[in-house]
Design brief:
Layout (H helix, E strand, L loop, with lengths): L5 H11 L15 H9 L2 H4 L8 H14 L3 H8 L5 H13 L3 H10 L6 H9 L3 H4 L6 H12 L6 H23 L3
Length: 182
């Protein structure tokens, strides 16, 4: 596991307790105090004074923190001008949670390489046979299952929440490690 800054560690406490990412579809976050703390945090505070290696990944880290607390509007605003594959993937994740399926698909179509795909596939496949049978991580399959939940397949919800948590954790760890110089 990555060693995060004190600022990020404090924000991750509730995630480690299983208290966050409980909803698959979100319209608006309600953690205004947390949003304000993320808004006001400088990159230096957020990264614990570490030297920035990749500014795009710093944006992804900040977007990931907003996403974790269901603040999808600010998450989208942070990365909307970024064009790298990870930023596009975060945007697709955001649109999926906003239940904007067609926009999520369009973004997934633009991603030529997701550096987190193998790790997500491995971790999700260890728990769920449907995903283990796939050749690689299939974000379209996950997107389609999230859409099925919207139309009443509520038995999928616990599994989808778990997969969403795995996906967030893998993507956030990757972006954190890429954001900072070694």
């Amino acid at each position: 596991m990555s060693a995060y800054s004190d600022f990020v560690d404090r924000l991750l406490i509730r995630h480690r307790l299983g208290d966050l990412l409980r909803r698959i579809h979100v319209r608006e976050g309600s953690e205004w105090e947390i949003k304000s703390r993320i808004d006001q945090a400088s990159d230096d505070l957020m990264l614990g004074g570490g030297r920035i290696a990749d500014p795009a990944m710093v944006h992804c880290v900040r977007a990931g923190l907003y996403y974790l607390y269901d603040d999808l509007g600010p998450a989208r605003d942070v990365i909307k001008m970024q064009t790298d594959p990870m930023s596009c993937y975060w945007m697709a994740m955001i649109y999926r949670r906003e239940n904007e399926v067609s926009l999520a698909r369009q973004l997934l179509d633009r991603i030529y390489f997701n550096p987190c795909a193998n790790a997500i596939h491995r971790r999700v496949g260890e728990k769920y046979d449907l995903y283990a049978r796939q050749l690689n991580w299939d974000p379209y399959l996950f997107l389609n299952q999230c859409e099925q939940l919207k139309f009443g397949m509520v038995e999928l919800e616990p599994e989808l929440r778990d997969i969403q948590n795995i996906e967030w954790t893998v993507c956030f760890e990757y972006c954190w490690n890429q954001a900072l110089e070694a």
